Amino acid sequence: LEKSRADFDAAVFSYNTLLLNASKEVGDQITIILTVISQNTLQEEIVEKNRRSVQLERDRYQNGVTDYLKVIEANIKVFNQSITQINLQNDRYQSSLRLIRALGGGYCNG
Which residues contact 81 (CB under 8 A, 6 or more apart)? Predict the structure, then answer.
């Protein structure tokens, strides 16, 4: 009887540990998703401001105030910031998948 009780206690401990780890993983993924959403919102603003800079540099070039190199440099900034934004979106999708897995779900690969 004591062995059965010890086995039961070990099973309960193992189950509780599993629940605690799963809860922590869910909380971690939710925190990551919320952080990435916030970062992505800021990144969208940065990309939009850089796009306006491109237009300003293009206007300056067309009015003879600057050379075309400034237009190219402004475009490069937009491209680099857009890549950062895409990476943030990817992080969000990856975290969403990890959250689904942490909640006990799965997903199909095709």
Answer: 43, 46, 47, 50
**Structure tokens that stand for 51 in this block:** 């796009």
Q: Chunk the chain into consecutive blocks of 10 residues (it has 110) and report each block's average pLDDT, rounded to whole numbers.
A: 88 92 92 95 97 97 96 98 97 92 72
- What one-letter code names the amino acid at 5? R
42, 14 in Cβ contact below 8 A?
no
Structure tokens at 27: 């909380």
Is 67 in a helix, a strand, or coil? coil
Give phi and psi for 74, each to the nearest 5.
-65, -40
Nearest CA to 46 among 78, 93, 5, 10?
78
For residue 98, the one-letter residue type is R
CA atoms within 13 A on the CB side of 32: 18
37 to 92, 100, 107: CA distances (angstroms): 7, 17, 22
Give the span between the Cα atoms of 50 and 83, in whole angstroms: 13
